[in-house]
Write a structure and sequence with these properties.
It is built from seven helices and eight strands, in the order ββαααααβαββββαβ. The protein is of the alpha+beta class. Strands 3-8-4-5-6-7 form a six-stranded antiparallel β-sheet, with helices on both faces. Strands 1-2 form a two-stranded antiparallel ribbon. Helix 4 packs across helix 5. The longest helix has 16 residues. The two termini are 14 Å apart.
Length: 206
């Protein structure tokens, strides 16, 4: 289950980088360092706007500079705080605030506490099956690449019975074990995506 990976390419990068906000002088480094959720949200909006003609008003850019302006526009709606965007609710309100400002109403689908392997898998795959990236939030986790951080899920695979997720993280394509992500202890694991229809979980893996 894979989305169109080409849609995430921004030059040599796979998805956005939060550092661009400070590197291009839009935000101070202190706030850019707390904007992983802004980059993940921009990945989501970029994909929806480029892949669905009826959602084209969400975003029509195709350069890194365009993407950075999208991040800045989303920043105003998401308004990261000292600890970034700490909840799925805040992310959902920011995302729908942005889409509503573009004249498009989308429904945020959220799963706040993912502790059950099957339940979380069905939710995330359900979003991907609708053709939308899924944003993951993880608090207090062993892997530093995912700890206290937002990433964008862009694909899903099963290898010898174990589920793996492809994500955009820090502008790179990464693959992580979904089973390990769920199985290891953390303060919070959650996911959110936007849909034009309704929130539908995927069926159990066979």
């Amino acid at each position: 289950m894979i989305l169109n990976h080409d849609a995430f390419q921004i030059g040599e990068d796979y998805g956005g980088k939060q550092q661009w906000l400070s590197e291009f002088g839009l935000r101070k480094k202190f706030w850019a360092d707390r904007s992983c959720g802004v980059a993940a949200a921009a990945n989501l909006i970029n994909y929806l706007g480029s892949e669905f003609p009826e959602l084209a008003t969400l975003y029509g850019g195709n350069t890194r500079e365009d993407f950075i302006q999208l991040m800045e526009g989303l920043y105003r709606h998401l308004n990261p705080g000292i600890i970034g965007i700490p909840t799925l609710g805040k992310m959902g309100r920011g995302l729908t605030g942005y889409t509503n400002s573009k004249g498009i109403q989308l429904l945020p689908c959220t799963r706040t506490w993912i502790f059950d392997v099957k339940d979380g898998s069905k939710f995330i795959r359900g979003g991907l099956a609708q053709g939308t990236p899924v944003l993951l939030l993880t608090w207090n986790y062993s892997d530093r690449e995912l700890r206290n951080h937002w990433v964008t899920v862009t694909g899903w695979d099963v290898i010898y019975g174990e589920e793996y997720m492809t994500v955009s993280n820090w502008g790179k394509k990464r693959t992580y074990s979904y089973d390990k992500w769920v199985g290891e202890r953390s303060l919070l694991k959650g996911a959110i995506y936007l849909t034009r229809n309704k929130c539908i979980d995927a069926p159990d893996m066979i």
